[in-house]
Amino acid sequence: MNELNYLNAVLLGIVQGLTEFLPISSSGHLAMAQQYMGLDATNRELLFFDILMHLGTLVAVIYIFAPPTRLFFRRLRKELFGAPVRDKFAWRIALLAVLAVVPTGVIGVGLKDEFERAFGSALGISVGLFVTGTLLALTAIVPRGKRGWKQFAWWQAVLIGIAQGAAIMPGLSRSGSTICMATFCGIRRRWAAQFSFLIVAPVIVGAGMLHVKEFISLDGMDMSHLSWGPLITGTIVATFVGVISLRVLLSFVRKARLHLFTYYCWSMALIIVLTSV
Fold first, then answer.
1. Domain presence at residue 53
2. pLDDT tens across 16-57, in order?
3. Is 1 part of any domain?
4. Nearest CA to 246 among 12, 23, 10?
5. Is residue 182 included in any domain, yes or no?
6. Does residue 197 lie in a domain region?
7. Which comes out higher in pLDDT, residue 221 or 90?
8. The total number of structural domains that make up the chain
9. CA 56 – CA 72 distance, rounded (Å)
């Protein structure tokens, strides 16, 4: 069955909205959900739906982080074009974000196919979920980070970018990988979460562009046969659920309870292995 209906669209929207931000891997859950629904992930309608859902989750990020983002760009504009300021922390954050995005882009473009071929099976997804759960478990062991932006080194930004790039592996959570890596580098929990989502916007846009290219290559830009009702409904669901799940994640980060997601990741990894045998 390759046709996308309202029920499938709503369920996939919920899965996307929840798993894109909670540290439990959106790629792994979406792959398994589509498989259980009998949907072909290479179908052009599913590819276009994936583009729309990525846009929906991007809207959720923009909505949640709108206040600090406005302050950041206001400060950045002042540092670049206003009166000289002594502490150019906005400019420093911007440079760190660029340093993080570069390795993400290199891994995402250069190794995407290799990662998906190596780990695209049910067993590969379960391995990714197990790794995610292990990283989350370690956050309960490492000392609480005390580094702020002034102590945030360039090599730490690169490590976070590498962690984000590695998350193209199905089952490996992007938010979990980047927040965990920032935590392991001693960054304060608040900054770890904010930096993780500062560098996710260009990644979502880049992934969306790759899907657009793949979508066009299948059958041009002909959209007359798309199921617009389910597509729009699923995207709206993904956006609203994404807002809720992002708020939940930030609450868990502030309270240092990311490790609680470990049990879910390990349980899902075991379930996938057992049901795929």
1. yes
2. 999 888 998 887 788 778 878 888 766 777 878 888 888 898
3. no
4. 23
5. yes
6. yes
7. 90
8. 1
9. 23
Helix (H, G, I), strand (E, B) or coil at 187: strand
- Rounded CA-CA distance 32/121 in Å is 10
Q: Which of 200, 181, 205 is closest to 192 using CA atoms?
A: 181
Beta bridge partners of 187: 147
Q: Which helix (H) or strand (E) holds 115?
A: helix 112-119
- Residue 238 near residue 63, CB atoms below 8 Å: no
Q: Which residue(s) pair with 147 in the sheet?
A: 187
Q: Contacts from 223-230 at CB under 8 Å and sequence distance 24+?
A: 223/48, 225/45, 226/45, 226/48, 227/3, 227/4, 227/5, 227/9, 227/45, 229/6, 230/4, 230/5, 230/6, 230/8, 230/9
Q: Which residue segment(s) compose the domain that 262 sits in?
A: 6-276
pLDDT of residue 211: 67
Closest by Cα among 31, 55, 56, 27 to 41: 31
Task: Tokens for 257, please give them.
Answer: 């309870």
Radius of gyration of the chain, Cα coordinates, nearest whole angstrom: 19
